[in-house]
Design brief:
The protein is mostly helical and 71 residues long. 87% of the residues lie in helices and 0% in strands.
């Protein structure tokens, strides 16, 4: 993997961690309630939600790369 690609990957992982950490930092009480709600969901519902988020993320990446002129 070229050095520039590794740098980009590490930046993306870092930004994901920042975005994931904001709700815990800003709204800890609401996050606890949300976690309790998630625990009550059945596995199939959580898998469907996860699959939808993966597809949405991939769609955003594809659209962003097309819109920014990258290949």
């Amino acid at each position: 993997m070229p050095e520039r690609s590794l740098e980009f990957l590490l930046c993306v992982i870092g930004m994901v961690l920042v975005v994931e950490g904001v709700p815990y930092f800003g709204f800890p009480e609401k996050m606890k309630k949300m976690m309790l709600t998630i625990q009550e969901q059945d596995d199939q519902t959580l898998r469907i939600m996860g699959a939808m988020l993966i597809l949405l993320g991939l769609l955003i990446v594809v659209l962003a790369r097309k819109g920014l002129g990258s290949t």
